[in-house]
Amino acid sequence: MTPKIPLSQRVSSLKPSPTLAVDAKAKAMKAQGLDIVNLSAGEPDFDTPDHVKEAAAEAIKEGFTKYTAVGGIPELKQAVIAKMKRDYGVEYAETEICVSTGGKQVLYNIFQAILDPGDEVIIPVPYWVSYPAMVELAGGVPKFVQTEQETGFALSVEMLEQAVTSRTKAIILNSPSNPTGAVYPEEMLRDVARLALERGFFIVTDDIYDEIRFDGKLPYNAVSVAPEAKELVLCVNGVSKTYAMTGWRIGYLAGNSEVVKAVTKIQSQSTSNPNSIAQKAALAALTGPQECVKEMCAAFRERRDYMVQRLQAMNGVNCIAPQGAFYVFPDFSSVFGAKWDQGTIDGSLALADYLLEKAKIAAVPGIAFGDDRFIRFSYATDIKVIEEGMDRLQEALAALAR
Ligand code: PMP
Ligand code: GLU
């Protein structure tokens, strides 16, 4: 008989990404012929711009299909340097840049590089689903700090000071945020930078949605508002969201050269260079015409306005207008306790189940982001789909016995 070999404890306690899981379930139901309105997907519905695709086709024709430098080709690093200068006003050298297989790999590498067992990482709640898992996979301990919709999901100095201990190695900031769409005030970022300098910890700033924002301002983050903290700020970004390039898998880190050296070393022993063809495509995205970004952003804004206006008019929904990214994160807690024929809606999982079963709307329950009061709807989909989704939601909420 084949012996049963246990897998690692590390993987046994690891949960699969719930955002990817809900999206996969919605797609499977659709493939079975069910009429699903999928508001779960965290990726732009737009096609990758043509000039980007052409750059990739050219790379293949030219035979640019071999291993590259582990941390990315110099031209792409230069394009990242130019973007960091243009948008954040901060100068970087090539030794301060590492290109990886998506923002996700950048984050994973960072935590592998900076955490020892027991080291703490401050994670504001609601958080993007993969942060706690990535910290734990590196032996770290997530230290959650609850934020509230009423205060725009921002952190106060008091909350921060309470959360920092002698084991604090880093804080994760994500602005515009997945799932809330909140943009942190500049003053708050200055407070975090001051504390990081005083107490000695890294600021991991996940800027993946930095160009999808509706206030007309240039992106800003902890390093642009507090350049004196540059050595402590690890800027994570990528082309997935800005250029509708989720499948190409290119992300990058700009920050402290010691950390960049460490993450490049980890990459050299794990995945080697990011895909050579995708690197050429990302180069075209970053250096080519930027009108496509403005156009996609304008479409997201129109959809956000529509979705928020519909949600705010519904009974039982408490929601603020997100300032960026492509998610709305309404509070549904006033619906909790309501009944339907298969049970009581006692939290976000039950509500998401109800919406999927009854209204055929796929959305991600807030519990996946650490806050059970909310549901995440993505508006990175056609306005017609959003209209249908909002009609169905309104009907489903009205049908609940309260
Ligand atoms: N950070 C956040 C907040 C995200 O929503 C995503 C999307 N998956 C990522 C990082 C990583 O994106 P990617 O790996 O596609 O660059
Ligand atoms: N970031 C997207 C989301 O939150 C994609 C899914 C994922 O990478 O987890 O839905």
Determine the structural class based on helices, strands and strand pairing.
alpha/beta
CATH overall fold name of the largest domain: Aspartate Aminotransferase, domain 2
Overall number of strands: 14
CATH architecture identity of the largest domain: 3-Layer(aba) Sandwich
The profile of the biggest β sheet is:
7 strands, mixed
Shape: globular
What small molecules are bound in this structure? 4'-deoxy-4'-aminopyridoxal-5'-phosphate, glutamic acid
For the largest beta sheet, what order do the strands appear in spatially?
2-8-7-6-5-3-4
Summarize this entry quickly.
By secondary structure, the protein is an alpha/beta fold. The chain is 41% helix and 13% strand. The strands form four sheets. The protein has a seven-stranded mixed beta sheet with strand order 2-8-7-6-5-3-4, with helices on both faces. Strands 9-14-13 form a three-stranded antiparallel beta sheet. It has a two-stranded parallel sheet with strand order 1-12.
Set down the secondary structure blueprint.
Elements: H1 9-12, H2 18-31, E1 37-38, H3 50-61, H4 74-88, E2 97-100, H5 102-114, E3 120-125, H6 130-137, E4 141-146, H7 157-163, E5 168-174, H8 186-199, E6 202-206, H9 222-225, E7 233-238, E8 251-254, H10 257-268, H11 276-287, H12 291-312, E9 327-328, E10 339-340, E11 343-344, H13 348-359, E12 361-362, E13 364-365, E14 375-378, H14 383-398
Parallel strand pairs: 1-12, 3-4, 3-5, 5-6, 6-7
Antiparallel strand pairs: 2-8, 7-8, 9-14, 10-11, 13-14
Helix pairs in contact: 3-11, 4-11, 5-6, 5-10, 12-14, 13-14
